[in-house]
Protein: DNA helicase RecQ
Organism: Camelimonas fluminis
Amino acid sequence: MTAALDILKTVYGYDAFRGPQADIVAHVIEGHNAFVLMPTGGGKSLCYQIPALVRPGMGLVVSPLLALMADQVTALRQAGVRAAALNSDLPWEERRLLWRDIRAGGLDLLYVAPETLLRPDVLELLDSVKLSVIAIDEAHCLSQWGHDFRPSYRQLDAVAQRFADTPRMALTATADAPTRAEILSHLAIAETDAFIAGFDRPNIRYAIEEKDNPRAQLKAFLKRHEGESGIVYCLSKRKTEETAAWLQSLGYDALAYHAGMDKTAREANQLRFQYGDAVIMVATVAFGMGIDKPDVRFVAHIDLPGSIEAYYQETGRAGRDGLPSDALMLYGYEDIALRSRFIEDSEAPEPRKRMERQKLDALLGLAETAGCRRQVLLSYFGDHGAPCGNCDTCAEPPELFDGAIAAQKALSCIYRTGERFGQAYIVDVLLGVDNERIARLGHDRISTFGIGAEHDNRTWRAILRQLIALRLVDVDLSGHGGLSIAPAGRDFLRERPALMLRAPAPPRARRPKAASGAARSAVADVDQELFQALRRKRAEIARAQSTPPYVIFHDRTLIELVSARPTSPAEMAKAPGVGEAKLERYGAAFLAVIAEHG
């Protein structure tokens, strides 16, 4: 481990490993396989990069996206590591020169997409190369039950067999117990070679709100993140473009990203996001995996994501640098109905549909919990923790009430109106609203008309949303959102069990404070001028090199420089993230800025 620690300091600029990194690195250096589950931002890449640099030969890294490979290669080269990516976009002459370097032992790490790696000519060429490590990143893509399933990942077992004497690693931040078992089995990695570092991202503040006025809610959320980069996830391509245009009209540097866009435009927007300091990407789930931007300060879902795994991975794109970040999710009963319809209308076999229903139920449980969000999130992955104090339900515990009678009234009203009307109409009947449609249909004369006067409109909406989440009520989207009583709802009416429901928060309730200005707030007010000057210098260098600013130094490194105010290269080298190559390349420029603000 002496060599590993030396590389950690001289190349990456860190004095010590974090968490289980040291055990994983030592395990792989000794020639063992490893499965690594570690939260986003926990340092997974070091777990394979350092063994690849210590062991003889070239490290081979399988990665699902070109953007991720390009990001990793750029960062490694900045640190003085000989790294390259092999992909289908590489011109023939560059590919020839790359293979010449590989054969000559001139490369430390080679990144490759699974589709490229599995080509017979690539495998044959690699047969003649000494490999130090084979690392399969984003390994959850292998699971046929996962939300990011990639068929090509299923074929990587052939690579493991072909290079059986090379230590292989499977790494991911998102894998529940069945997915973990599938990865281990498929890649023939023993359970004794598994390292589970947990799922907790304590720097992320989770909040979930009823979708009331989505644009107003998003606007208020973004107001707390002025001058910061973030991601806004939408369900549809159209909504993505409309939301981006609306944010642009408010003065934000907002971009759209979805699979239906022209490839050139999509890639240009991704680069602007990666290189920018205050860019908002409005995207479908087509965007995100492999985005290594560490200073994403917020992730907002204005539509319900597909599962807890998807939610965890998408929110995990915030705060990769460990600084405080925010995750907001908005959802309503229409979201539940739409997600349910996606499942039922799919051509998937029934076992797959059953699992998707269970995943949706788990997500709705997270959305409707009255307890700590983080505890629910962690327990889904088999992890545990005390109440976090850093989510909306911890900051402002929701009020619970005995909802059995309210549920009976709502279900009775749905039944007596014919099980064909939507939420708004059912609420109007419960409240006894005097309108022409209710009178024309004669629903002002039924027994449930006006029996819900004890609750207001918002409370009844919340009750109906929870009944849908509990699968007591079904929603027929093809029938314009008509509500009907589900089989479990009929059982409920017959058995009349106890039922505790969440009361909606008052419209003007105090919101838990967001992690606003996270990076800036980590620096004392008197140091703001120096911090911003260092950021400007970093941006200037990055522009000159056509690289993202965070590849030069992370915000966390700049914060340490502001705090320590080094006056010499030796002092600057003590800051985390300042390795020998970066110190030699950028030390003088940053020391000069610090001296100017002395």
